[in-house]
Write a structure and sequence with these properties.
By secondary structure, the protein is of the alpha/beta class. It has helices spanning 43-46, 77-90, 101-105, 121-129, 142-155, 167-174, 204-213, 227-238, 271-278; strands at residues 30-32, 69-71, 91-93, 111-115, 134-139, 160-164, 180-186, 214-224, 243-245, 284-290. The chain contains 9 helices and 10 strands. The strands form 2 sheets. An 8-stranded mixed sheet has the order 3-6-5-4-7-8-10-9, sandwiched between helices. A two-stranded parallel sheet has the order 1-2. α5 (142-155) links the parallel β5 (134-139) and β6 (160-164).
């Protein structure tokens, strides 16, 4: 994928490997077509063309094109083994059924969704830093998820669950209104060419959907390394009436909210983001909170 910065794990063919024995977009995510039997293909991906106009009442919330690209990828033998051991318990394909997060995690805790978790470098670090939160990572790229599955198994991380498929389908059909404490979207694909801007994930309808799913006081945290997309995101977010800026990039003051926010404002820096920093690419953090009426 050709874009400016290329700092999201899921976007890179050189996604970092997970060393050691075995013990999963988007955001900038890509639809995988892994080598294997038909059962490797999630039903929601196979039937997407027949569901482009559906939502939880029978028609899609808004017409759109997907914000990710098709891509193939196979798992290594050790990834396959870890996947077989872990996925039945911690992973699911995106579906139309409402999600019972408390039953899936085995506890009732504040729920955070990360859209486009890639290979999970940041996901696993944030989950371990915030053990009081239940974290669901959404990703379409199976080899990336497999690396995260390995991390979860090796590091025995108990508060991560994974969904493979389209994040908008998750928000529309699987997550109830005012059920999320946080939504994180780190380095969504900027689709920099003007003719591709319609593919950008963060459009007004998506902001409205996220705002609807957040609890009052819940947080939306977006990060991007693409200046033009940052301006677009900031402008669209400013128009969403249910959200208010919590940091300087969104018209707020982060020091006034950092200690009281229900999720942390800090992000671990992945090696790809480190490369972007060294190359001089600016990272824009945009943080909103849902207003409490």
């Amino acid at each position: 994928m050709l874009d400016n910065g290329r700092v999201n794990d899921a976007a890179n063919n050189t996604a970092e490997s997970v060393p050691g024995p075995p013990s999963t977009g988007s955001a900038r995510t890509e639809l995988t077509d892994p080598v294997g039997s038909a059962s490797d293909h999630p039903p929601e991906l196979e039937t997407r063309n027949n569901r482009e106009t559906r939502n939880n009442t029978g028609s899609r919330l808004y017409p759109r094109v997907t914000s990710f690209r098709s891509r193939r990828g196979a798992l290594t033998a050790t990834q396959q083994q870890s996947w077989a051991r872990m996925w039945p318990a911690i992973g699911r394909e995106v579906a139309d059924e409402p999600l019972d997060a408390a039953a899936w995690f085995g506890r009732d805790a504040p729920l955070v969704v990360e859209i486009g978790c890639g290979t999970g470098t940041a996901t696993s670090a944030m989950a371990q830093a915030e053990p009081h939160l239940n974290l669901i990572g959404i990703e379409v790229y199976r080899p990336g998820l497999a690396q995260l599955v390995q991390r979860i198994e090796r590091q025995q991380i108990g508060n991560i669950r994974l969904l493979r498929g389209d994040a908008v389908d998750v928000l529309e059909n699987m997550v109830a209104a005012e059920s999320l404490t946080g939504v994180r979207v780190f380095f969504p694909d900027p689709w920099p060419k003007a003719r591709h801007h319609k593919r950008r994930l963060l459009q007004p309808a998506t902001f409205a959907l996220i705002a609807n799913r957040l609890k009052p006081g819940g947080v939306l945290h977006v990060a991007t390394d693409h200046a033009d997309y940052a301006e677009h995101i900031a402008a669209v977010g400013a128009e969403e009436p249910l959200l208010t800026g919590l940091n300087e990039a969104t018209g707020g003051v982060s020091a006034e909210h950092r200690d009281s926010a229900p999720i942390g404002f800090e992000r671990p820096v992945t090696k790809f983001e480190g490369k972007a920093h060294r190359a001089g690419s600016a990272i824009t953090e945009l943080i909103w909170g849902k207003i409490e009426l």
